[in-house]
Amino acid sequence: MSRRGRLRVLGLGPGPADWRTPEADAALARASDVLGYAAYLDRLTLAPKQRRHPSDNREEAARARHALELAAAGADVALVSGGDPGIFAMAAALIEAAEAGDPAWRALDIEVLPGVSAMQAAAARLGAPLGHDFCAISLSDNLKPWAVVARRLACAAEGDFVLALHNPASKARPERIHDTFTLLRSLKDGATPVAFARAIGRADEKITLTDLRDADPGVADMATLVIIGSSETRWVARGAARPWMLTPRGYGARR
Amino acid sequence: MSRRGRLRVLGLGPGPADWRTPEADAALARASDVLGYAAYLDRLTLAPKQRRHPSDNREEAARARHALELAAAGADVALVSGGDPGIFAMAAALIEAAEAGDPAWRALDIEVLPGVSAMQAAAARLGAPLGHDFCAISLSDNLKPWAVVARRLACAAEGDFVLALHNPASKARPERIHDTFTLLRSLKDGATPVAFARAIGRADEKITLTDLRDADPGVADMATLVIIGSSETRWVARGAARPWMLTPRGYGARR
Q1: Is B124–A113 a contact, with Cβ atoms under 8 angstroms apart?
Q2: Same domain, A128 and A154
Q3: In angstroms, what separates the C-alpha of B177 from chain A's closest C-alpha?
Q4: Out of A21, A60, A92, whose CB is closest to B21?
Q5: What is the pLDDT of residues A158-210, one digit of tens each?
Q6: How many domains does chain B contain in total?
């Protein structure tokens, strides 16, 4: 413990290297140890002397503790997230682990480095669906009761927010995105624009545009970000190209 | 109109160049014409042959039309935003202008490039306040009725979302952030953690940590992002350093 360790929690962005910040790249390049979900580490070109510590997607707490142990032992640690580590990702897991663990861990040189989230990449591809007030909600009920998710969905509909839905479905819980659409159809106009944005920036990127009435929630998987409009959100046609999804800056201007 | 123009809407991030994506840098480097708020253009090093078109902060619609006119005439245009162009920024203004203008504008080669928003930079500095469901709300009532903002604040409180408040105050409307705190104090626990994150990443960066009861809303100006916790958000002490602001991944685990 005599050497001074360092820990950086960083985001790789949605996929392509040109959506990753130079700050994150610099922290990765100088790290002695790189920890993260195996599929994320596979995206990186590291030097032979850099130690890789891949782990399973669901082992966030254990990965965070491991990162803290390595930094406490003097390592220069990069703890890797997809997207932005601050949005439904590793920053919270790391701070929870620091809070619950060895008190010396909190005195380590720890910083969170911001990144581009999948939500923002999806919004950019779609046009400007998040151009106005919006809510980001994770549909995963692994760590919170479904009743909390349902209440938040209802409040977001009542407030006429645009919705950006994260973690819409997994093999372990395929039904929550269906529950979500059933609930929202009872609260919002069926003509509300909906976009399923899957794996944006990656080779298997796929965008599905629809509306709340006709949407097939079964399209969504864990790599999908679902954006559901407010009452103001609309499509802007542009000939043969995919229409833009626009939530205008003003509210009520067309009423 | 015989040459083929191009238009990229891009974000400079919150300030430092190492929070700007390589994709945005590449679009800036090859642009023939760069348009944006004068203070943003002043941050950039451009080549002598690149034409700068600075404009006032409030001239978003006119700036967007100008960008479309230049691209329609064959220019390679970079339309510059702070932060992420998709979050309360130029992407919506650009698409609104394309929708309202010359139909040929919609057929132009236009892309929105995502970036790191001020909200994410603030969250990274603070720890992990956006680690769970949150709402992003602009307090500006230039383009929407205050009643809409107030309803959204109330719904966000009812849904126990973390709140990320953009555009909290300006010289023209200094009172809305005070109205916001008065409303939220009637709906949320006074001990709820609050952070005012001003000019994050810039030389005059300033962070103020407080709680809903004791917060001085007068601290906020247009460069401030205000984050107000959910019932789960808490401080994590770390000795002499500023405590982390944490919204844990789970909900109700301590109840």
Answers
A1: yes
A2: yes
A3: 16
A4: A21
A5: 999 999 999 998 888 889 999 999 999 999 999 999 999 999 999 999 999 99
A6: 2
pLDDT in tens, A14-64: 989 999 999 999 999 999 999 999 999 998 999 999 999 999 887 999 999
Rounded to an integer, what distance in angstroms lies between the CA atom of residue A229 and that of residue A162? Answer: 5
Output the pTM of the full model.
Answer: 0.96
The contacts of residue B238 (CB under 8 Å, 6+ apart) are A98, A106, A107, B244
Collapsed DSSP state (helix, strand, coil) of residue A254: coil
The residue type of A4 is R
Rounded Cα distance between A89 and A12, Å, is: 11
Closest listed residue to residue A7, CA positions, set A38, A28, A22, A37: A28
Q: Which CATH number does the domain housing residue A182 bear? A: 3.30.950.10
Does A89 contact B131 at a Cβ distance shorter than 8 Å? yes
Residue contact A92–B18, C-beta within 8 A: no
Q: Which residues span the domain enclosing A185? A: 119-246
Chain B CB contacts of A109 below 8 Å: none
Measured in angstroms, the CA of B52 and the nearest CA of chain A are apart by 24
Q: How confident is the model at residue B57 (pLDDT cuts 50, 70, 90)?
A: confident
Give the range among A139-143, B52-56, B242-246 with minimum mean pLDDT.
A139-143
Closest residue in B to A120 (Cα) is B114
Question: Chain B residue closest to A89 (CA)?
Answer: B131
Query: How do strand A6-11 and strand A76-81 relate by DSSP bridges?
Result: parallel
What number is the ipTM of this complex?
0.96
